[in-house]
Request: fold
Amino acid sequence: MMTGTRDLLLDLAATRVQTRGYNGFSFNDLARDAGIKAASIHYHFPTKADLGQTLAERYRKGFAATIGAAGDGTPSDALGRFVAAFAATLDQGRMCLCGLMGAEVRDLPDSVAIEVAAFFTFCQQWLEAVFTRAKAGDAATSARHTMAALEGALMMAQVARDPRIFHDVAAEVRRAIG
Amino acid sequence: MMTGTRDLLLDLAATRVQTRGYNGFSFNDLARDAGIKAASIHYHFPTKADLGQTLAERYRKGFAATIGAAGDGTPSDALGRFVAAFAATLDQGRMCLCGLMGAEVRDLPDSVAIEVAAFFTFCQQWLEAVFTRAKAGDAATSARHTMAALEGALMMAQVARDPRIFHDVAAEVRRAIG
DNA sequence: TCGAATCTATCTATTACTAGGTAGAATCAA
DNA sequence: TTGATTCTACCTAGTAATAGATAGATTCGA
Reply:
């Protein structure tokens, strides 16, 4: 109720991107989902790049809100929240929005690519803070390794249509902090 | 010389897919690369799905040839060869062909998706054999974790335009086997 | 002369995007 | 309070460009 068409479009576009990718959906697809005409989408988002950029920015902020502060709880708790956020995405049958767009990065408008990169920079810093607190090996390396494993596992689970592939890797990732 | 147009198309298409993805290139792009007309590509590959399927199959076989048998050398050697194959891809400024297509999997023709899945099945079995020999924890889990980290790191390095992200993770991955 | 390989020309569908218009709500000056 | 104006959110109808694909003619080497 009163959600507003703009937010509805953002929600529907996020679903599209997280399953088909930026190049895998059109304004026509989105219009059909939303029950309006394709041309009307341009009223809310002048270009597809504007939509993609807004999508990536919103995703980063939503993700940040979901996982909370890197300093909240024990390092193990924090890492658990991070992994859980990825698991929740998988449970919805989706890929990480920025993970999927990240794969397409060379084919993305610059404005979108920049916003995708910002998501990974945010995650790197967040995880680095957690691993620094945990004092377990090199924090920057652990952060990169964790992020890479989660993104890769999400993709592999999608290809094999088997969520257990992700959950198996996720359990291993959590083991990095006792 | 004498490479044959078909192989040339395969080489050029592989480059396209590994940078832009399956949905990120057209027969027109490919025709321009090869110096022939777009319609002529259909002589060699009736449909784009045929091309994509052939590409993924060829990639798996080439990858298998590059890394050799899982039983060759010490487990550490074998893992080193596996990681080196990914590093070589990165050095060419490319993504893993099946990693990129894997991200797009829901938007791929079935025949292509099946071949992409076969690549991951092959890698899983190969790595599992290596970790089984190394007797380091659960082999299946280690194999999944290794593969996920390498694929994710390749993507992240591409997004950040910083190969060190991959090499950092790669070093960590190799550490799994002394 | 046969057939492999490539061409020209065309098709249908779809892409992102634009132009111009409209119903209705909100705003605001007299 | 009224009437003029402007804004919001959508519409129809189109653009040029591109997509993958096809039919049939042409070229050319063995």
